[in-house]
Amino acid sequence: MEFKSHKVIVDSENPFKNDKLNRQPHVNNFSTLLENISSPIVLSVNAPWGQGKTTFLEMLHTQLANRKHNSIYFSAWETDFASDPLQAFLGEINEKIETLIKGDKEKNKAWETTKKAGYHILKKGIPTLIKVGTGGILDAEKIIEDESSKMMEGLTKDFLAEYTKNKEAISQFKSGVSKVLRNEGRDATRLFIFIDELDRCRPTYAIELLERIKHLLDIEGLVFVLAMDKVQLSHSVKGIYGAEFEAIGYLRRFIDIEYTLPESDLDTFIDQLYINFGFDDFFKKRMQYREFQHDIDHFKDTFKLLANAKKLSLREVEQLFAKINLVIQSTAENTYLYPALLAFLIISKEYHYDNYSDYINKGGDPEKLIRDLYNMIPQSQLLNSHSCALVEGFLIAAKYDYYNNTIGNSLKRHEDIGNDKSASKEQQQYSYKIVNIVNSFNGARNSISLDSLKQRIEMVESFQFSR
Q: Is it true that the peptide bond before 203 is cis, omega within 30 degrees of 0?
């Protein structure tokens, strides 16, 4: 029994072996673009949190490596313990560079010069030159105390001398990298550098990394591909430079080409999660009972409908599945589950908590949650949706039977529509379904025990889910 979905493993020999979202065509096109594009250049892969940027980048990196290109992948988030992004960058590329220049004395010498220059830059902090180059914005917290005090006292000779040394170190650093990648009579050696999870880093680190790439690593042969949530990263920029700062325009200074990751097929992703979590096994066991034979379809169809209507990210879908899984696995195979209602209540608890809370407690009626359902699903789709009819019918029936008619006008409204000759055929048919579903539970032995369902759903609160 699985309690969480595992990370997609990108196979080193076949990067698309576990491609469940049909990313291969997009990866192939992007790989071809990278092979033909001129350098230096910085590209970004932009998508909101939880939409599969990491898997996409790992596939790109593996695809290029398999095509015998020099490719490096690292997570910025995993390296933001470093005091300076340049330190992390040098550490990540050092092994690859040493492999490239093995046996070449001149390039070895150039690389040693580069590392020494990099050490000097790290030792002295970000020079004023870079800060001026990023728009004239000086961040006093970034300037080490002795330099800061010198600035307060005035530009002394020592300070100007140190500035010159830093400027020379930058020149030596860039020159060293260029020599390492340069090939006499041929194009520079191409090095693809994939940097993931930039938007998860502490804000200062993320911005410094962008500045390092722009001002120190704008060198022929280097191709950077950055994965980011541009909106989230812009918030980080504003957190440093102020709420009124034009953050999106600022980020454009560092990125030459922006690629928006195509939206994933949620239905395909849900089908895969259904297998990963073992839901198919759970529901198949229940099919021996006549009353539960349609549970498997009711759950899938309802969850897909709601997830698409809410435009949930892959990560959000996965976390909701983990919560539903806890409820399912705590339910005996011969116990009523009402999976369509369960899916709706779990999602409502996550995104419409106040209305969920009113409904689930003994005084409330289903009206607010029914309005939430109507707001999620366009009427033209809702009236023809069996899943919507199930959800609305169950919402009414659970209160009607167990909570002594605390249903407001929910049932009467549909009874009236059924008798209204001016109502459309679709409206009448939908209302007939609702009335029939509610009446099928009235006084029946299989009445919906909302208390039992509530206990299982509330149990989820005792567990923590990583994001």
A: no
Phi, psi dihedral angles at 46 (to 5 degrees): -105, 135
Examine the pLDDT at 370 and tell me if it is beyond 80. yes
* Residue of 348 and 448 predicted with greater confidence: 348
DSSP alpha helix (H) spans, 52-140:
53-66, 76-79, 85-100, 105-124, 128-133
Closest to 344 in 3D by CA, of 392, 308, 273, 312: 392
Report the Cα 187 to chain-centroid distance in Å. Answer: 37
| Structural domains in the chain plus CATH codes | 24-260 (3.40.50.300), 266-462 (no CATH)
Please list, in sequence order, all residues whose beta carbon lies within 8 angstroms of the beta carbon of residue 172, skipping any fewer than 6 positions away: 113, 114, 116, 117
- Find out whether 251 and 234 touch, Cβ atoms under 8 Å: yes
d(CA 110, CA 329): 61
List, in sequence order, the alpha helices (H) in 37-84. Answer: 53-66, 76-79
Classify 229 as helix, strand or coil. coil
Q: What is the DSSP letter of 195?
A: E
Any idea which residue has 């919507």 for tokens? Answer: 388
Q: What is the pTM assigned to this prediction?
A: 0.69
CA 144 to the chain's CA centroid: 36
3-state helix, strand, coil in the chain (%, to 5): 60, 5, 30
DSSP letter, residue 320: H
The 257-260 sheet, strands edge to edge: 70-75, 191-196, 222-228, 41-46, 257-260
